[in-house]
Design goal:
The structure is a single chain. This protein has 203 residues and is an all-beta fold. The mean pLDDT is 93. The protein has a four-stranded antiparallel β-sheet, with no helix packed on it. The protein starts with 11 loop residues before the first strand and ends in a 7-residue tail after the last strand.
C-alpha cells in the first residue's frame, strides 16, 4: 500500500531510489535521505551507518547548510550522487567499483567533491547505474557554441561507460561518442542508453 513520506511543509521536486535507500531533492535545494546507510550512501557523515526509517537532511546542500542548493540527485546500488546548482558534483557511499569517481575504490560516508577531466565541461545531469555513474555535460565547442558530452566512472565490464573498452574507471573518463550532441541518458545494471540532439534516435 502506498505510504505518504512526511517532509513537513517542504515541497519535493525529485526522488531517486537505490538498492535499499532513497534521496529526495526539495524545491529549495535541500536533500533528504532514508533507508540503509551501511556504506554511507545517505551522505550523513555522522560516523554512523545505521538505517534511517524516516527522511533525514543531508548537511551539505540547500539553505542553512553553507553549501549551494542541489539540482539533481541520483542513486546507485549502495552509493549516491548529487549535482549542485553551480555544477559541482558530489558522490558518496560504496566505491568498490570506482563508481564514485574519486580515483580510488574507497567508500565515502559524506559527500566527496569530484571533478570531470575537462575544464571546459559544465555538468548538467548525473545518472547512476547499479555500480557506475554517468555525467552529462555541456562542453565549449568554439565560436560561442557547445555540445553535450558524457563522462563515466565505475564498473564497465559490458562497456556500459561507452569508453571503447571494458576496463573499469576509477575516475571520470570521456565516453567515445564522436560528434554526438548528448542531451539525455538512462542507466541500468550494465546498459546505458543516450539521446542526442544532432542524430535522432537512441544509442
Amino acid at each position: 500500500i502506498p505510504t505518504v513520506v512526511k517532509l513537513g511543509t517542504a515541497v519535493a521536486a525529485q526522488v531517486a531510489c537505490g538498492g535499499v535507500h532513497s534521496l529526495v531533492r526539495l524545491k529549495d535545494g535541500r536533500v533528504f535521505g532514508f533507508g540503509k546507510n551501511w556504506c554511507g550512501q545517505l551522505g550523513l557523515n555522522d560516523g554512523r551507518t545505521t538505517c534511517k526509517k524516516s527522511p533525514v537532511p543531508l548537511p551539505n546542500f540547500g539553505p542553512g547548510t553553507g553549501q549551494v542548493p542541489a539540482a539533481v540527485v541520483a542513486c546507485g546500488n549502495e552509493f549516491s550522487a548529487v549535482l549542485a546548482e553551480d555544477s559541482g558534483l558530489w558522490t558518496f557511499g560504496y566505491g568498490g567499483q570506482g563508481q564514485l569517481g574519486t580515483g580510488s575504490k574507497e567508500n565515502f560516508y559524506g559527500p566527496k567533491r569530484v571533478h570531470l577531466p575537462s575544464s571546459s565541461a559544465r555538468a548538467v545531469d548525473v545518472v547512476c547505474g547499479v555500480e557506475y555513474t554517468v555525467v552529462l555535460a555541456r562542453e565549449d565547442s568554439g565560436k560561442g557554441s557547445s555540445r553535450g558530452v558524457m563522462f563515466g566512472s565505475g564498473e564497465n565490464g559490458c562497456g556500459q561507460l561507452g569508453l571503447g573498452h571494458c576496463d573499469p574507471a576509477l575516475s571520470f573518463e570521456r565516453a567515445a561518442l564522436g560528434d554526438h550532441d548528448v542531451v539525455g541518458a538512462m542507466c541500468s545494471k550494465a546498459l546505458t542508453v543516450i539521446r542526442t540532439r544532432n542524430k535522432p534516435g537512441l544509442w
